[in-house]
Amino acid sequence: MDPQQEAVLKKIAWRVVPFLTLAYVVNYLDRTNIGVASLTMNKDLGFTATQYGLGAGILFLGYTVFEVPSNLALYSIGARRWMRGSWSPGRRVGRDRLGL
After folding, report:
1. pLDDT at residue 99, as a whole number
2. Is residue 56 within 8 Å of residue 34, measured between CB atoms?
């Protein structure tokens, strides 16, 4: 590899690796948060361990099933339009709930 390619890869790594690290940490916190929530939530809602496990499994199955179509749409539509379309309903709901 020539020095110019190495410089480009090093620059990309310095920009991408911190973002990927942050994404990994947020993903880990999301997954562990569900486990911590079960400690009190199961008792409060009257769930058995089996019911909770089924619900958590359905949640992660949904992540898996919708990840591929979401990425295909992101690729074909473009990131700006995809994010705008996915965030707009949330903003509308928030405005409606706040009475704005």
Report:
1. 65
2. yes
pTM: 0.48
CA 34, 70, 66, 12 torsion-angle sign: negative
The encoded tokens of residue 19 equal: 């973002």
Instruction: Enumerate the domain spans of the chain.
Output: 1-47
Q: In angstroms, how far is CA 4 from the centroid of its own chain?
A: 35
Integer Cα distance of 91 and 93 in angstroms: 5
Beta carbons of 74 and 82 less than 8 angstroms apart:
yes
With beta carbons less than 8 A apart as the criterion, state whether 82 and 73 touch.
yes
